[in-house]
Design brief:
mainly alpha, globular, cell membrane, 0% strand, single chain
Length: 413
């Protein structure tokens, strides 16, 4: 099936694009549900095993599944109907997440192993969804508006995440973590229904550089070659890969610190994560203005340094309010850097390569994330969360310093 389906419409500013508004609403709803799983999955594992290392291993397995899926996600997004991919991915994840609460409620002693099957599979499908979503935004919004559109997407989803963790903590307290995952499953169903309203511009098949004739590996390499040849994207990809190695498991470490280090209830954990979502909203709303004023390089390097600094400062946090403030800074600066990076790739990548470049970037980007999640959660369990925060934060600062010696520093708009 060649990717030529869709109504031929010209891209528009995000505020006037009906398709973008539908995509925005679907993403907001989906992230509202994801807030539930962000809290529920580590709690499920901790309730069943008492081991943060097991939670980290599950995070690592999901990250590895996303990496493997990235080998194919790009060519799938470039070759097939992107709207159908978005709808189908949401439907599949709805079914996968619905299985988890059923197992947890029906089994006398819930086993942990189904999580290591269902959640990595959902992560793999999520990679296909995210690649297709990135390419869909490019088709729905004019190029000069991409940073603002991505900021609105992130701000909207973060607003949902502000309420999500608090609601997830309440639902987890009432019905247990499995009930929170049931809510996540339902959110994917409604999100998929909203995505049927998206109409993407008609586009030609991605055959200009051999897509459709070469195998998946060769087509993946087409995206990787573009990253390698671009003077800014090449160092940026390497730096982000190392950065993700350091921070990929920090959500689990924060939950562990609050539960086992500070002895806080589930509701407090949810409120702290809600503070992080508020930080994401702030970062998402100011990123377009910051990038226009300071340029790409200054925004990305500054945001990366501030993100790492917030992680390192977590070692000194002894009160939930202090943790919440640092989590807000962490997620706010992380969103500024992430939106800048995403918008740059959308702007400089040819349309027929966008899916493969996105997939190649994320596959490389996430390649060490699972290792980092497993390693840093193990470190937290053996030596405590404060030590983990210092090590990860110092490494992140080193990444920002290294960026000063690359073309990233000189990159403008």
């Amino acid at each position: 099936m060649t990717a030529t389906a869709g109504t031929s419409v010209a891209p528009a500013p995000p505020g006037r694009s009906r398709g973008f508004r539908a995509l925005w609403a679907a993403q907001v709803l989906s992230v509202l549900g994801d807030s539930f799983s962000q809290l529920a999955v580590p709690l499920l594992v901790l309730d069943a095993t008492g081991s943060i290392a097991t939670a980290g291993l599950l995070t690592g397995a999901s990250g590895a599944a996303a990496v493997v899926a990235g080998l194919f996600a790009g060519v799938v997004a470039d070759r097939f109907d992107r709207r159908a991919l978005l709808v189908g991915a949401d439907a599949a994840r709805m079914l996968l997440f619905a299985v988890v609460p059923l197992v947890w409620w029906l089994a006398p002693t819930p086993p942990v192993w189904p999580l290591f099957v269902l959640l990595p599979l959902a992560a793999a499908i999520g990679m296909v969804f995210q690649v297709a979503a990135v390419t869909a935004v490019r088709g729905l919004v004019d190029g000069p508006e991409l940073t603002r559109a991505n900021g609105r997407l992130h701000a909207g989803t973060a607003l949902a995440a502000v309420a999500g963790p608090a609601l997830a903590g309440a639902v987890s307290g009432w019905w247990g973590p499995a009930g929170a995952l049931a809510v996540d499953a339902a959110s994917f169903g409604v999100s998929g229904a909203l995505l049927t309203l998206v109409r993407l511009p008609a586009r030609r098949a991605a055959t200009a550089d051999g897509a459709g004739r070469a195998g998946p590996w060769a087509e993946f390499l087409a995206g990787a070659r573009f990253l390698w040849r671009h003077r800014v994207l090449r160092p940026l990809t390497a730096l982000l890969t190392v950065f993700l190695l350091l921070i990929y498991g920090m959500d689990d470490v924060v939950v562990y610190h609050l539960k086992h280090g500070l002895h806080q209830p589930d509701g407090t954990v949810g409120l702290v994560l809600a503070a992080g979502a508020a930080g994401t909203v702030t970062g998402s709303l100011v990123v377009a203005r910051l990038r226009r004023r300071f340029g790409f390089g200054a925004c990305w390097i500054g945001a990366t340094a501030a993100t790492a600094g917030a992680v390192a400062a977590g070692a000194a946090a002894r009160e939930p309010a202090e943790v919440g403030a640092l989590v807000a800074v962490y997620f706010g600066c992380l969103s500024v850097g992430g939106i800048c990076s995403l918008s740059l790739r959308q702007e400089v990548t040819p349309e027929h390569l966008l899916g493969r470049v996105t997939a190649a970037f994320w596959t490389i980007h996430f390649s060490l994330g699972g290792v980092g999640a497993a390693a840093f959660t193990w470190l937290a369990q053996r030596h405590g969360a404060p030590v983990t925060f210092v090590v990860a934060g110092a490494g992140g600062v080193a990444v920002a310093v290294a960026a000063l010696c690359t073309a990233v520093r000189r990159a403008g708009a």
